[in-house]
């Protein structure tokens, strides 16, 4: 396997580095976007297996970006897997993520075991490099 392609949409540089370094150890091919608008721009030129989307960002937040992605996919068979990422752990936040079109949700700080559990439910398997 050439590695799972992942778009990390996160405005916090420390979180970007932590998640990037963690997932790089498992062979992920990662692009980073600082907000939802940058994510949409990246999706214009490349497809990804998984999008890890922060909810609270400047310019365009994760929920608005997710709605735009789902609008773009309306007439396509293939859909992006979007996992919401937020510091909030309330059930209402999870429900909002799912109702806005995200496939799953996880709380910060980033937990590699939880992430592995989530992506395995979509048929992806992580391997150490």
UniProtKB/TrEMBL annotation:
Pfam families: Response_reg (PF00072)
Name this protein carries in UniProt: Response regulator
Keyword ATP-binding appears in the UniProt entry: no
Modified residues (4-aspartylphosphate): 54
Gene3D superfamilies documented for this protein: 3.40.50.2300
Top-level taxon of origin: Bacteria
Protein source organism: Marinilabilia rubra
Domain Response regulatory per the UniProt entry, residue ranges: 5-123
GO biological process: phosphorelay signal transduction system
Keywords: Phosphoprotein, Two-component regulatory system
Alphabetical list of CDD domains matching this protein: REC_hyHK_CKI1_RcsC-like
